[in-house]
Structure formats: C-alpha cells, structure tokens
Amino acid sequence: MGSGFLFLLIKYIFVIYFLNYCKSKKRNKQDNTLFLNTCYSANGNTKGTNRRKKLLLIDNKTSVSNLLSNKNKLNYGEQNETNDNSGLIHSKLYKTEEIENNGLNNFEKDKINYIKKIVHEKETIYALSSGKDLSAISVIRISGPLSKIILEILLHKGVEKKDDKIGSYPTQLSEGDTKKKKRKWNLEKIIKLKKNIESRKLYYSKIYDNSNDIIDNAMYSYFKSPNSYTGEDVVELYCHGNPFIVKEIMAAIEYVNNILYEVINEEKEKIRSRQIMHDDNLDPIEQTLFDLNNFIKIRESKRGEFTQRAFENNKMDLLQIEGLKELLFCKQKIQKKIALNYLNGYAKNIYLKLRNNIKKLLVYIQLKIDFEDEHIITKKKKKYINMFIKKKVNNAIKNIKTILKRENIESLNTPSNVLIFGNVNAGKSTFMNYICNSDISIVTKIKGTTIDIIQKNVKIFNNDYNFCDSAGISTLANTKLEAEKDEKQKSVHKKLESIGIKKTLHFLENSSSVFVLININNYFNELKNVISLLNVKFMKNAKKTPYFFVCINKCDLQQNPERLLKIKNNVKKMLLNFLNPRIFKKFSKKIFFISSKKGHNINKLLLHFNRTMVNKQSLHNSTININTEKNKIKTNLSSDNKNIYFLPFERHKIYLKESLKHLYFVQQNINLVDFDIIAEEIKLAVKPLHEIIGKISNEHILANILDTFCIGK
After folding, report:
1. In terms of residue numbers, what domain contains 524?
2. Where does the record place the GTP-binding protein TrmE N-terminal domain (predicted)?
C-alpha cells in the first residue's frame, strides 16, 4: 500500500513536470517568431494550379536591414527546413541596395527606409529663421533626411485612435507612457508615429516634449525633396514667438539625437545576436550602422547653411545667392529691384549672353584652325577671317565696358550725399534742422556760423540720404583763389570760414544732388554768385556735376503772388542765359518757394526730390543691351520689354577685367599670331565669365557671401 502510493505520487509529479516543460517550449517558440508571412511563388499562374504557398520565418534576432536584397525580386529557390518540427520553410533573402517591394509589407519597408535615413551621411540641421526677439510668431526650419521623422516625434502624443485617418499606423499609448516620465523608444514605436503629411500644406497640432508635456500649439508644413528651398526634406514650425517656447522646441529637436541613439544601440544588439547565431556577413548599411559611435545626426545650422545646401543641390546659383544677400540687407527700393532681378535670373541672362557670344567666336576659330594647318586658307581669306574675329572681339569688349562703367551695387548701401548749398545767411542751417527734425546745426543771426560740414542720415520716403549742411559762400569768393587771398589780413573767424568754404566746394564735387538755397530778399546777387562759381567749378569736369534743386527761401517774408511769379521767371531766365548749357541740363525745371523756419512747401520739395533721384537712379541702372551676333542689332534682355534694373558686384568687375585683358591681346595681335593662339586667348577670356556665373566651384567666394547671412537662412 505504501509503495503503491509512493509510485503514484512520483508518477503524478513527473506528469506535472512534463506538462510544464512542454508549455515552456511552446512559449519560447512563439517568442522567437516576430511575424509569419505567406509568400507566393513568382512563377504561379492566376488560376492557382501551379502556385505553391511558402512561409517566411524571420527570427527576432535578425536585423531589419537584413531584409535588403541584391536583386529586384525575392529568391525562394534555396529553401531549408528548420530543425524544429514546425514544418516551416525559411526563404533566403538576397541583399541589395534597392528596397524590395514584393514580399515585404509596408511596415518592413518603413523599417528599411528609416534606418537608411538614420545612417545617412548628411546631417539634419535646424535653426530659428525668424528673429530672436519677442514676437507674435516664430519660425523654426529643419532640413535634412531626418526632418519628417523629427516632426513625427514632436507630434507623438497627437496620434491616437481617432486620428487613424491621418497616421499610417495607429498608436496606442500604454499606461506607462501616459505617466509624466520620459518615454522609452524603439524603431517600431517611431514607425508607428508615421503620418501621411501632404507636401506644401499647412497643419495645426500640439507639440510635445519627451515627457509627453505640451510645449505649444503650433502650425507646421512639410516640403518634400527636391521641391524645397534646400532641395532636401524641409519642415517649418510656426509657433508662438516667445523665446522661452522657441528654446523648448529647439531643445526637443536636439533631444531626438538621444532617441535615435537608443534605436541605434538596439539595432546593434540585434546584429550582434544574429552574427552569433548565424555567422552572417554584414551588408553595407548594417556595417555603417554598426560603426556608428558618437551619434549626432541633428544639430543647429551654421550661418547661411540652408542656402549653402540649396547651392549644393543646384536649387540656387552663385548670382542668385548674391541677389539674396542684397535683398536681405537692402535699404532702398532700387536695391530691392536689383536684388530681385538677380534672384529671378535676369542678371544671369546678361552674363550668359556675354559668355555665349564669346564662346560662339571660340567655336568659329577652332574650326578655322584645321584649315590653317592644312594650308587651305589663302592670305586673302585669312585677312577676311581676322577682320571678322576682330569685329566680334571689339563687340565683346564694348559689352564688358558697358558693365564696367556702371557703379557697384555695394555703393547703393551707402546713402548718397545731398549738399545744402548757398550764400551766407540764406537759411541753410534752419533748412537742415527742419529736415532732420532736430537742432543739429547752430542757427544764429550772425553770418557764417557754420564753418564745417555737418552730416546726418535722413530717410525720405523709405530712401536713405546723407544730408550735409555746409559753410555759406561769400559774394566775394567766386572762385577758390579769391577765397584764399589775403589770409593774413583776415580775422580768425574769416580764416575758419575760408577753410569751411573749401570743404563745401570739395563736397560739391562728391554729392549726388544739391539744394541751392537763395534768400528771396537778395535773390539776384546770390543767384549770380552761385552761377559764376558753378561755371568755374564744372567747366572742365562736367561728368561730376550733381543734380540741382533751386529753392527760394524765406518766402514767408514776401506774400505778394505777382511778386513771387516775377521772381520765379527772373530766376529761370538767369539760369538759362548765364549758366553753362551742360550744367543747366542738371538743374530741375521746378523752382520751389519755401520757408525753412515755418516749413512751408518743404514736404512738396522733398517729394519731388525723392521722385527725381529714384527715377534718375532707375534710368541709370535699368536696361542693359548686349549686342547679339548681328552686330548692328541690340536686343533687350527682358522678354516682356520691361526695364531690368542691373548693377554688377565688385567681384564681377574683377573677373570682367580679367576677361578684358585677354580680349585686348587678341584685338592688338590679331594679324601677328596663329588661330590656335587666338583660340587659347578667347578660351581664357571665357573662363572668368564662368567664375561670375558660378559654373566653376569656388568655395572661398561662397563662404564669404554666406558668412554675412543669419543662422536660419
């Protein structure tokens, strides 16, 4: 009885142990299988008669990057049965650089794509593109292969069951994830956050940090490469313009480095485990993944780095970048127009026409070289060819000189000098104070109070001008020589006044425009003195003559309309009869009666002054004609016949002068050298034009331009 009971007890314990053992084996088998996918033979027909069902088993120790194969279709030819009794068949996957479409579901494809983006050699950059000050809205720009992944992570709490229409994979947050603690990440969780975001559309959502706290309610947009500013995937976040909020969002973007580092370490462990179990070789992506140590794939951008990437991806050329720089820092309307023409490619067309004309000449000469070597060309024929080449070279030289004669676009950044000129006690200082809206000049009843040039930058209708108050010219000082006579006999004040007059005359040559102020009570003598001085000053150098505006001051002292009309007519007659005709052309036809003390008519004067100067500048900087192959015909570079505002940069002039040097050599030695030497010189003349356009890479020039840009550009 005792032995029988003992036997039954031992038997019972053995059965319990055996059942537990079987259960544990079954559980381990299930844990080792990630998913079971049914695959069909590529050779099967639609009726299913020859189709064979295959099972694909992927072990959880196998890295996702092992799903890459070397062919355009999966090869199921080599099949081996597993050692266990499951009856499943392994299908060997060949490795490839292309993502396999057949046999892989969307989740597997996304895994491969995400890993490729993570190990991409190009870093993802981000920056605040708007100002750092407090504002209504701030713009944060992200560019690079990880841009969309960063956006999806920032929006991670916003993808729930009710948002399934937006997300590709619904995310169900566990109880642990809802607690206020940092979230644990892996590649599967990141992929589940994927959103079907349409490019170039504006969305609204909440932005979260890694502790699931809301940072801000923001708008965002996604620009898929290559249709973006940089040519890469670009994300723009439009948040509230509080610097504290901006700082938190940028910290959350930076933290994605840590999240992806966790993912990398997990994938490395999978690779190690697979190598131990199967002793497989690493494919290139796995090797890159395995070699990653210090993982920093997301960083703040450098100055102008977004624009640099646009240049590298052929979204912008060097001339467009120069135009963008000018547009960012322009202060005048004319600067803006010129900058936009650089951005829109009009400036490039000018240099392209110039370059292409010379290149066509080069092709023509190279064709003639073969005939010259074979002695086919007679002396008479060669003379005719030389005349033709010289004609084309002269045309190219003329076109380059046309550009070189124009002022540099950089000169527009400096406000033009506007001189307030006139006789002593004409009310110049009072006029200066009214325009500057401050007592910048001393005003007294004593004659000759101003003995030096007083300057002040003033914005007139959004255009900057440098107004200069000057020492008044005396009626005795018709020329410089008269101002310098008998200095020893003058008082100290007279000596200082004489020095001031010299400075005034010097500024007269270097000013773009001049206000000539005349006292209404002594207009005849004062105007006669001004006319005499200008005739002497600009007789020999009419090119430096500024533009003049005649202002008859202190009109509040004379209220009789008939008297004012008579004075106006007399002034016009004096200018017409006594002023040099070349200088007279530089005088405005309008004559203004003003009161510096009461401000009468000054606003109308400034309006006319600004319009005149802008129009003159526009006319000078507008359409430029590059001669075409038909030498007598000049074509406007604008297809719509509108004026094109164009000025060269100083950099352009340096290269144009280099090109001009080689063209001069051809011009002077056309009859003394062979065609091959001429062709070489023409080729050297073309090279600097390539430098202007940016066809020849010059990192030093690009770096100098981008160094002036802000961080977010």
Report:
1. 416-474+496-619
2. 124-315
Which domain CATH number covers 149?
3.30.1360.120
Assess if residue 18 is contained within a domain. no
Question: Radius of gyration (Cα) for the chain, nearest Å?
Answer: 40
Strand pairing class (634-636; 625-627) = antiparallel
Torsions phi, psi for 466 (to 5 deg): -105, 100
- What is residue 131's predicted lDDT score, i.e. its pLDDT? 82
657, part of any domain:
yes
Q: What is the CATH number of the domain that holds 377?
A: 1.20.120.430
> Is there a domain that residue 22 lies in?
no
In SS3 terms, 324-352 reads as HHHHHHCCCHHHHHHHHHHHCCHHHHHHH
Phi and psi based region of residue 83 (left: phi greater than 0; alpha: psi -120 to 50; beta: remaining) = alpha
Provide the CA 579 distance to its chain's centre, in angstroms. 49
**What does each C-alpha distance from 237 to 137, 191, 217, 431 come to in angstroms?**
10, 21, 10, 50
| pLDDT-based confidence at residue 377 (cuts at 50, 70, 90) | low
Domain termination residue (choose one: 619, 635, 660)? 619
| Residue 375, C-beta contacts closer than 8 angstroms, at least 6 positions apart | none
How deeply is 64 buried, as exposed, middle or buried, from its count of CB atoms within 10 A (0-12, 13-18, 19+)? buried
Q: Do 380 and 509 belong to one domain?
A: no
Asked whether residue 117 falls in the same domain as residue 257, the answer is: yes
Write the pLDDT tens digit of every residue in 594-637.
998 888 999 999 999 999 988 877 665 555 656 544 433 343 33
Q: Report how far residue 306's alpha carbon sits from residue 327's, in angstroms, rounded to the nearest whole number.
A: 16
Look at the pTM and tell me if it is higher than 0.85.
no
Amino acid at 655: Y
What digits encode the pLDDT tens for the residues 231-257? 999 999 999 999 999 999 999 999 999
Q: What residues contact residue 697 under an 8 Å CB cut-off, 6+ apart?
A: none
Contact in structure between 448 and 497 (CB atoms under 8 Å): yes
Show the tokens assigned to 398: 């003329």
Report DSSP letters for 112-142, one per residue.
Answer: HHHHHHHT-SSPEEEEE-S-SS-EEEEEEEE
Residues 668 and 554 grouped into a single domain: no
Q: Is residue 222 part of a domain?
A: yes
What one-character-per-residue DSSP string does 69-117 give? Answer: BSSSS---SSEEE-SSTT--EEEPPPB-SBPP-TT--HHHHHHHHHHHH
Q: Report the number of distinct structural domains present in the chain.
A: 3
Give the range among 452-466, 478-492, 578-592, 652-666 with minimum mean pLDDT: 478-492
Give the distance from CA 447 to its chain's centroid. 54
Query: pLDDT tens digits for 554-575?
Result: 888 777 888 889 999 999 999 9
673 and 586 assigned to the same domain: no
**Residues 504 and 598 placed together within one structural domain of the fold:** yes
Count CB-CB contacts under 10 A for residue 277. 11
Report the CATH number that the domain containing residue 539 is assigned in CATH: 3.40.50.300
My answer on whether 294 and 336 are in the same domain is: no
Q: How far apart are CA 502 and CA 482, in angstroms?
A: 11
Q: Where a domain ends, among 301, 336, 356? A: 301
Question: How many whole angstroms from its chain centre is CA 230?
Answer: 10
Per-residue pLDDT reduced to its tens digit, 396-421: 999 999 999 888 888 887 888 999 99
Selected residue with higher pLDDT from 461 and 697: 461
Q: Mean pLDDT lowest for which of 179-183, 342-346, 549-553?
A: 179-183
Q: What Cα–Cα distance (Å) separates residue 546 from each residue in 266, 461, 513, 541?
A: 75, 21, 5, 11
Distance CA 287, CA 25 (A): 34
Same domain for 367 and 283: no
> Is the C-alpha dihedral spanning 538, 542, 546, 552 positive or negative?
positive
- Please tell me whether residues 367 and 440 are part of one structural domain: no
